[in-house]
Amino acid sequence: MGMVQFLAGQFEAEVGAARARRLGLECPTLQAMIDVTEGWLHEQRDLAQAILATKATQPDLSEPFVEVKARLKAAIEAETADLGRAWAIWASLEGLHFFPGPTASRCFPKTNVRRSSRTCASA
Known about the structure:
mainly alpha, globular
């Protein structure tokens, strides 16, 4: 569990740093998660899938990520009134864990997903 806790902390720190660059925009936490998730899935997809696969036999293993995501959800709830759209984006990010192909910016290169300044309301 120590490695999972370390990785969850690293993920949260990276989202925090990306969020700081997005301050002043609508829903900076969700935009930061978009920025960070793509890189994490490029490098950590196998680990993310392995953690998910152990949920039935070792449910506590993913607890550090559950705690991080609870804090991120609370931040998103405070940043936007359009929660339906925010949760749809969140679910899409979570779904990328199961998508074996390229990540979002390679699927939609013209939209420049990682550097988009679009808000939750305009996404």
